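User: What would this chain look like folded?
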Amino acid sequence: MSPTDQTLHPHRWSMLPVILAAMFMAIFDSYVVNVATPSFEHDLGAGQVALELIVAGYAFTYAAGMVSGGRLGDIFGHRRLFLLGMLAFAVTSLLCGVSQEPWQLVVSRLLQGLAAALMVPQVLALIHANFRGAEFPRAMSWFGVTTGSSAVLGQVLGGVLLKADVFGLGWRVIFLVNVPVGVIACLAGLRLLPENRSPRRTRLDPVGVIGITGALALALLPVILGRDEGWPIWGWILLLASVPVMVLALLFERNLTRRGGDPLLDVRLFHNRAFSNGLIVNSAFMSAFASFSFVLTLFMQDGLGQSPLSAGLTFAPLGVVFAITAIGSRKLAMRLGLRVIVLGGVVAAVGLAVLLGELHWLDGDINAGWLVLPMAVVGLGYGLIIPSLIGAVLRGVAPTQAGAVAGLFTTAQQFATSIGVALLGELFFAVLGPVLTGDYIGGAEAVAAVCLALVVIGAALTAAMAAQQNRAARPKAEEPALAG
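Assistant: Here's the prediction, encoded as structure tokens.
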């Protein structure tokens, strides 16, 4: 056994399911609310703005706190922050489950997102610190499988839990189930997690936290609230203000880096084209998937009259196909590299195109049975895409930057989810009209068309990245022949 192996945590494979449980819970709770949105309408009287804040607000605070959560883990220890975040997630889930008014659920969801932002960055940090060599891609493969399957299972299990109506709790059970799971994960973490802390002494960057998070909040708030408020002047002012605030924040971060400080966001990372393009690809694919899931469950329940269970089970083929593909795609990804993401994008685009055609041509004759095949094809495509996305972002980045890049990757993923749900949710509700009794098929068709465009853009950008890598590698491969 090498010295490097001797320093690795002996219970790392037992630790892995515990920390991946945090990843599963965070993403599961991002998607499980989709299938419960009609219940929030009926039981709590939640309006359109509250519904979007319940879904997108969680993703926003989750993303906004992600990089700060990672920095706090470097300062105080990843084990400590993981346990604190898991405990906070259980408590905020309890607050969600006992909410009596829409605003209480919105506030609890915002706090739940912040709790997720404390525990999730520690997952990647603990994997990075405790797995080496061939074990690292295996562990990251399970990370990718967990990321995607939790999103799909949020739809399926959400419907099952609502139908079961455990103890007569109705929609509340989708949040309350996190409480015992969180307690068990904390107890297991106390026994299995090692104490990992960054060897470099780092400091929090409060100006960066306030500036970058504030700029994104200024941009997102009018997007979520604008249409319901009649696009008031204050919304446009906030939207315009987000640009200079972000510019000033990035300038501060750049100057802090030059002075040898510890910026929240190292802007030098964006000089790496593979990193920058990878973030764009990640955002395109994830915003499409999140908004597709959000709108389709509303369409199935409110438009087609399905029960939450029936709507959730309609997502089941997507989940099964995704899980099988994601688990089996690791070897294919090793052979194809970035091209596996291109292949997944093409497959997902075919599924969305079929769905779009069904919505357009079948119109009022469409039912849930018609949705199963295109959704399964979308699941097949995303089973190839999601486990490989982080590899595309990390490709070409120095090992010393891997932790920061992974944190930014997750942040970008969650902001893409938040903005995708907000913008395409607005599009869907705009087609329906103010009384939500309008053209559900037309709204779903419009959103499916935009999702198709986003997936095509993601696949095209990935293909360009793969071609660039091939051109960069070709002279080295041909050098011996030229020398001869």
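Residues 208 and 264 are 6 Å apart (CA to CA). If you want, I can go into more detail on any region.
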